[in-house]
Design a protein that fits this description.
336 residues; alpha+beta; BirA Bifunctional Protein, domain 2; 2 domains; seven-stranded mixed beta sheet; three-stranded antiparallel beta sheet; 12 helices; 39% helix; 20% strand; binds phenylalanine
Length: 336
């Protein structure tokens, strides 16, 4: 077999230099590596060899094929065939242009922008705060004392002693109130971090904080704003329910539910058969928080609320696993 391959190579080398037209090039190609070319015939003979011989001969055969292909390519690229060859690969001005594929906005960004624009129309402006916070801003100023369970190492990522990745957007309330005098109406979207990961929790997720402070702000203002907001996000006639709750930085506090968007209150898997979905936490700003920022609680009142953006996006788009948002699988992302 080896001798046969040597012979093929010698013959090829003697014929190759005389190729000067595309037709001759085609013929050379088919004589050697075409379906009925010398190499294909040699390949058929492999069958009659022992496995060891086959392996050895197969390698030589392959080397020769690679050699012949590269020589053919050289001749094709060479000057003699250039005019023909180049017309074949030339720029064709009659072809339609290639469209630039546009990306799309991440569902979390889409929902964030939608919520911002709703609150913008209600007179709220957007504020931001740092993601790395001192314990003072994340906890103390928000009336969360040292022994509070929310400070547990299990929930909070500590960067170093006294410094944490913020566990909620509420510290932005403190920064804003330290820097501005009331009246104020702000929302603060951003990333928050908690040491938690499963089908409905990721270690990083997004919240939107809201804060309104003025003279005479009452719980009914909070109810009115939440009603307006949630009707816009989930559609007119979305029913709301306020449940008493507890947050150290609001008093009274409430959790706001909407009637389940999947079953319209009938009870299903998504709402755990209750007919209601918990959407956000809210309440009247606790006087202790006003004291921390030197606002006089006798003069000013306000409400605050906080919601998880991924949760809203999951309900709006019918997504069951929060982790999908951060796997960057294009088959998922392209649907938005
Ligand atoms: N910060 C709270 C949380 O992360 C939400 C909240 C914000 C509740 C503002 C009341 C007022 O769960």
């Amino acid at each position: 077999m080896q001798d046969q391959l040597k012979q093929i190579r010698i013959e090829f080398d003697s014929q190759a230099p005389s190729v000067s037209t595309p037709e001759q090039w085609q013929r050379l190609r088919s004589d050697y590596i075409g379906k009925k070319g010398s190499l294909s015939l040699a390949m058929k003979e492999l069958k009659s060899l022992t496995p060891d011989q086959k392996r050895e001969a197969g390698k030589h055969l392959n080397d020769l094929k690679v050699y012949i292909e590269s020589r053919l390519k050289e001749i094709e690229d060479g000057s003699v065939l250039q005019p023909k060859a180049s017309t074949r690969s030339a720029f064709d001005p009659t072809l339609p242009g290639r469209r630039q594929a546009f990306g799309s906005q991440h569902p979390v960004t889409q929902v964030t922008e939608e919520i911002i624009s709703i609150f913008y129309s209600l007179g709220f402006s957007v504020e931001e705060g740092p993601e790395i916070e001192t314990e003072y801003y994340n906890f103390e100023a928000l009336n969360i004392p040292k022994e509070h369970p929310a400070r547990d190492m299990q929930d909070t990522f500590y960067v170093e002693e006294e410094t944490v990745l913020r566990t909620h957007t509420s510290p932005v309330q403190i920064h804003v109130m330290e820097n501005c005098r009331p009246p104020l109406r702000i929302i603060a979207p951003g990333k928050v971090y908690r040491c938690d990961s499963d089908i409905s929790h990721t270690p990083m997720f997004h919240q939107i904080e809201g804060l309104m402070v003025d003279k005479g702000v009452s719980f009914s203002h909070l109810k009115g704003i939440m009603d307006q907001f949630l009707q816009k996000v989930f559609g007119a006639n979305t029913k709301l329910r306020f449940r008493p709750s507890f947050f150290p930085f609001t008093c009274p506090s409430a959790e706001v539910d909407i009637q389940c968007v999947m079953c319209k209150g009938q009870g299903c898997r998504v709402c755990s058969q209750t007919g209601w979905l918990e959407i956000l936490g809210a309440g009247m700003v606790d006087p202790a928080v006003f004291n921390a920022v030197n606002y006089d609680p006798e003069e000013w009142t306000g409400f605050a609320f906080g919601l998880g953006i991924e949760r809203i996006a999951m309900l709006k788009f019918g997504i069951h696993d929060i982790r999908l948002f951060y796997e960057n699988d294009l088959r998922f992302l392209k649907q938005f």
